[in-house]
Design goal:
mainly alpha; Hemoglobin_trunc
């Protein structure tokens, strides 16, 4: 079956669920996510559905600021690279099209910004 573009909430759920399933099993970033999300995975996944639904489908179901819950995580560029690697692989395995490409661009921008801000909070004297 030929791959289609992301087009509705079911597609968003498939993307998010497949991505976080791989994240939870990943040797590098899995332990960080699993410790932080202990008992809260369903709530996090719901939030991620709304986040990506808002970004990609322009159905405004997410409000809030995505960065603050992440600022004290014990992560660095290596973790963000792995996060992006998994995200890109998942998107490419499930979808093809304009919104699939948009998802990867948005994720890369977010990874860059989150990493930059975390480094800034961690070492404010270097800025």
């Amino acid at each position: 079956m030929a791959l289609q573009d992301v087009s509705n909430l079911d597609d968003i759920k498939l993307l998010v669920n497949t991505f976080y399933d791989k994240v939870q099993k990943d040797d590098l970033i899995g332990p960080i996510f699993n410790e932080k999300m202990l008992g809260r995975w369903p709530e996090h996944l719901e939030k991620m559905y709304r986040f990506w639904q808002t970004l990609l489908l322009e159905e405004h179901t997410y409000s809030g600021s995505p960065f603050p819950p992440h600022k004290h995580l014990p992560v660095n560029q290596l973790h963000f690279d792995r996060w992006m690697e998994i995200f890109t692989t998942v998107v490419d395995s499930l979808f093809v099209g304009k919104l699939a490409e948009e998802a990867k661009v948005r994720a890369a921008n977010m990874a860059y910004m989150f990493n930059y801000k975390i480094e800034y909070f961690r070492n404010p004297e270097n800025h």
